[in-house]
Amino acid sequence: MTEIDWTAVQRVAHVVRGEWTLAIVRALMNGPLLYSRLKSEIENGPLMSGCMLHHSTLSRNLANLVQCDVLERRQLSGGYQPSVEYRLTDFGKRVVRVLREAGQ
User: Fold this and answer.
1) What is the pLDDT of residue 1?
2) Which domain CATH number covers 68?
3) DSSP assignment of the chain, as one string?
4) Would you say residue 32 lies in a domain?
5) Dist. CA 10–CA 24, nearest whole Å
6) Which domain holds residue 71?
7) What pTM was estimated for this model as a whole?
């Protein structure tokens, strides 16, 4: 029997308790998204369909997930306006694997 890393379990539990966390992680499962596309995916996705997600709420949740090493934030240059892209980190991908296991 494999030993359980309870520290990792606690870390995942801490991360997924956020109000919008599951919707954010789900939206980023298939790859990185620009901020505006991410917001749209969350608002139109199956978890929060029809909910209006305020920019301040999304920004606060994204900053928390970056701080918890679930997401990576990248500033993209070029074009008329600079863009921000979000993607899952290696730890974020582990969170997805745990959630997939729990959902089966």
Assistant:
1) 58
2) 1.10.10.10
3) -PPP-HHHHHHHHHHHTSTTHHHHHHHHTTS-EEHHHHHHHHHHSTTTTT----HHHHHHHHHHHHHTTSEEEEEEP-SSS-EEEEEE-HHHHHHHHHHHHHT-
4) yes
5) 20
6) 8-99
7) 0.83
